[in-house]
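Deliverable D5.2: sample structural annotation.
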Amino acid sequence: MLIEPALPKFQWGQPVIAAVDLYNDGSHPDVAEDQLMIVAGGPGEIVQVGHHAEANLAVYMVDFGLAVIGCLEHEILPEGSALTEEAGT
């Protein structure tokens, strides 16, 4: 059975904010692993939209100014959104 790829919720060029604190997961070798990189609410812009085929998830490359970070949908919100306790869960 063929599963259709998940459609992305966000688009290239869209301004977003971090929904949660974003930490280095090891993908930024010049930054200590588990170091806080972007605080929740930090502004960014989507510079690439990709797809993780095995997990059937949209993956977003977000330029937060200090770093370009790969994010999942639950880790970002549209610009102007209010942060909530539930964001990212």
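Annotation notes: The chain has a mean pLDDT of 90. The chain has no helices and seven strands.
The annotation will be released with the project's public dataset once the embargo ends.
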